Amino acid sequence: MIFSAYAAKTPWYSDFAQNVKQTWQQPEHYELYVPAITWHARFAYDKDKTDRYNERPWGAGFGQDRWDEKGNWHGLYLMAFKDSYNKWEPIGGYGWEKIWRPLADDNFRLGLGYTAGATARDNWKYIPIPVLLPLASVGYGPATFQMTYIPGTYNNGNVYFAWMRFQF
């Protein structure tokens, strides 16, 4: 009896792996990612640094998603954009958001969740770096404005990054 109760509880990483696998094998939509803005928190940077940083992250990405039985979003993505130094930065991973539909119109939704993946930067010699970041979104129909915040220290990190996600 104790064994069956223990076996019924799956560890978080098993659920995570299953969600990644299911999103990879059973996508419902494909998605175009279009980076929109990076903003360096002015309270956390010297002005001379923010004056030199790029805050227009030109680039694009591609992904696939699915919606689970609870109405939550799962996505796999690859994106490349111009970073703070105007150098190319790739990022890829898995994202999950708990979705709320606060209005009678089911097309409007709000999301809150996380992304787990890897990125690589020119100033770090393009060595892959794992990322675990928060996600938030506002969406209507096939279009979603999604965002994250990269925490950091003074003159490092503390960046708001947002993009558009279009399902097709």
From TrEMBL:
* Gene3D superfamilies in the record: 2.40.160.20
Q: What class of enzyme is it?
A: transferase
> What EC number(s) does the entry state?
2.3.1.251
Keyword Nucleotidyltransferase assigned to the entry: answer is: no
Positions marked as site (Role in the phospholipid gating): 154
What the protein does?
Transfers a fatty acid residue from the sn-1 position of a phospholipid to the N-linked hydroxyfatty acid chain on the proximal unit of lipid A or its precursors.
Q: Which reaction does it catalyse?
A: a lipid IIA + a 1,2-diacyl-sn-glycero-3-phosphocholine = a lipid IIB + a 2-acyl-sn-glycero-3-phosphocholine; a lipid IVA + a 1,2-diacyl-sn-glycero-3-phosphocholine = a lipid IVB + a 2-acyl-sn-glycero-3-phosphocholine; a lipid A + a 1,2-diacyl-sn-glycero-3-phosphocholine = a hepta-acyl lipid A + a 2-acyl-sn-glycero-3-phosphocholine
Show the active-site residues: 40, 83-84
Please list the GO terms describing molecular function.
acyltransferase activity
Its assembly, as annotated, is: Homodimer.
Site keyed Role in lipopolysaccharide recognition: positions = 49
Query: Localized where?
Result: Cell outer membrane
UniProt lists the family membership as follows: Belongs to the lipid A palmitoyltransferase family.
Quote the InterPro entries the UniProt record gives: LipidA_acyl_PagP, OMP/PagP_B-barrel
Keyword annotations? Acyltransferase, Cell outer membrane, Membrane, Signal, Transferase
Return the Pfam families for the record.
Answer: PagP
SUPFAM superfamilies, alphabetized: OMPA-like
At the top level of its lineage, which domain of life is listed? Answer: Bacteria
Q: What is this protein called?
A: Lipid A acyltransferase PagP
**Can you name the source organism?**
Kosakonia calanthes
Q: Which HAMAP family match?
A: PagP_transferase (MF_00837)
